[in-house]
């Protein structure tokens, strides 16, 4: 009977996706589930949002490419944020939606699944509109994408600064899995090493001075051909100069969180997510960390698959913090129960 149920739920969900219906099939759409629960979904109708869309929201995700078929890691990131923040608005901005028609069929899997959360909305990402009123406006007007080797990452770096400077809130990369509610964080970012900050998780009030300085530095010291120059390196150099410090620490009202808070496993050890079967490490993440950064750049380049049933750390994170995405992963696994997450 258990086997039948485990197959039935993904099949029902897949049928929903292909038929493009509107009913809600995610577990407790407006309520935060028990993090330890891995039960099947409950069915209910989502709330209908009638207010006009705007960029303002509590939590932001950004997809700067034209891609609409979000990966399983993308889906898990948004789902985990929605579940951890049932009373917050999660806005997913996608460049590809500018040319997307509601008549397109079928809807992208990620959009179909994640839209069923009543606190998640998708919106077209208009760079001109977003950058208007910031130092990025003229930079964007003059930018020649042909000469930009890291165009999409650079645009992502620009978008997160503009969003939080203009509207405030929390920005998350799409390879972040949220483990705890982040709403108690204000004007905070985290270190990925003793010498460098990371912008995969940012929480700031609107019009914060630090973000304003980052926007200025983004344009004045622009060097898009160097990986990270407009992202982690920018955040690091601006904070050090603004605070007059050599070693990274909290200063001028900006809180610098310890590595274990946002980036408990550093990019050098990203394979641990795919190879470590350890309940003790998982429990430490649950106790000490707010997020887990899966380092999409590393895992994508290697083509490393996740083996369903291996109970490695990444599978534990998926099954506990994005169970609906996990059910789809189980369904889409190959004959050897392997699935690519990005």
Automatic annotation (TrEMBL):
Pfam family, one: Gb3_synth
Keyword terms of this UniProt record: Glycosyltransferase, Golgi apparatus, Lipid biosynthesis, Lipid metabolism, Membrane, Signal, Transferase
Catalyzed reactions: a beta-D-Gal-(1->4)-beta-D-Glc-(1<->1)-Cer(d18:1(4E)) + UDP-alpha-D-galactose = a globoside Gb3Cer (d18:1(4E)) + UDP + H(+); a beta-D-Gal-(1<->1')-ceramide + UDP-alpha-D-galactose = alpha-D-Gal-(1->4)-beta-D-Gal-(1<->1')-Cer + UDP + H(+)
Signal sequence coordinates: 1-21
Residues covered by the Alpha 1,4-glycosyltransferase domain: 203-328
EC number: 2.4.1.228
Membrane-topology descriptor: Single-pass type II membrane protein
InterPro entries linked to this entry: A1-4-GlycosylTfrase_dom, Glycosyltransf_32, GlycoTrfase_DXD_sugar-bd_CS, Nucleotide-diphossugar_trans
A single GO molecular function term of this UniProt record: lactosylceramide 4-alpha-galactosyltransferase activity
Residue ranges of the region described as Disordered: 30-49
Pathways per UniProt: Glycolipid biosynthesis
Any single biological process term in GO: glycosphingolipid biosynthetic process
Family that this chain belongs to: Belongs to the glycosyltransferase 32 family.
Annotated PANTHER family: LACTOSYLCERAMIDE 4-ALPHA-GALACTOSYLTRANSFERASE (PTHR12042:SF17), LACTOSYLCERAMIDE 4-ALPHA-GALACTOSYLTRANSFERASE ALPHA- 1,4-GALACTOSYLTRANSFERASE (PTHR12042)
UniProt-recorded name of the protein: Lactosylceramide 4-alpha-galactosyltransferase
Organism in which the protein naturally occurs: Latimeria chalumnae (Coelacanth)
């Amino acid at each position: 009977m258990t086997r039948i149920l485990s197959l039935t739920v993904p099949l029902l969900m897949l049928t929903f996706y292909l038929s493009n219906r509107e009913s809600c099939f995610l577990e407790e759409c407006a309520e935060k589930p028990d993090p330890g629960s891995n039960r099947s979904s409950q069915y209910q109708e989502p709330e209908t949002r009638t207010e006009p869309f705007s960029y303002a929201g509590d939590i932001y995700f950004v997809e700067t490419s034209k891609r609409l078929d979000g990966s399983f890691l993308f889906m898990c990131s948004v789902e985990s944020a929605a579940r951890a923040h049932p009373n917050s608005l999660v806005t997913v901005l996608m460049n590809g939606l500018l040319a997307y028609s509601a008549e397109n069929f079928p809807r992208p899997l990620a959009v179909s699944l994640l839209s069923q959360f009543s606190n998640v909305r998708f919106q077209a990402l208009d760079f001109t509109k977003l950058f208007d009123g910031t130092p990025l406006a003229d930079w964007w007007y003059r930018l020649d994408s042909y000469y930009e080797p890291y165009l999409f990452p650079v645009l992502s770096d620009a978008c997160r600064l503009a969003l939080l400077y203009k509207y405030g809130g929390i920005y998350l990369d799409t390879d972040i899995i949220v483990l705890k509610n982040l709403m108690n964080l204000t004007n905070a970012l985290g270190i990925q090493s003793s010498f460098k900050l990371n912008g995969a998780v940012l929480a700031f009030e609107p019009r914060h001075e630090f973000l304003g300085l980052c926007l200025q530095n983004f344009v004045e010291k622009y060097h898009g051909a160097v990986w990270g120059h407009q992202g982690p390196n920018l955040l690091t150099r601006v904070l050090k100069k603004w605070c007059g410090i050599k070693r990274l620490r909290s200063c001028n009202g900006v809180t610098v969180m310890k590595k274990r808070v946002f980036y408990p496993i550093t990019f050098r050890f990203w394979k641990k997510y795919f190879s470590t079967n350890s309940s003790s490490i998982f429990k430490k993440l649950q106790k000490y960390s707010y997020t887990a950064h899966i380092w999409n750049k590393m895992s994508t380049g290697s083509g490393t698959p996740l083996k369903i049933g291996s109970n490695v750390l990444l599978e534990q994170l998926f099954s506990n913090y994005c169970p609906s995405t996990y059910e789809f992963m189980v369904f889409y696994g190959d004959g050897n129960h392997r699935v690519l997450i990005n």
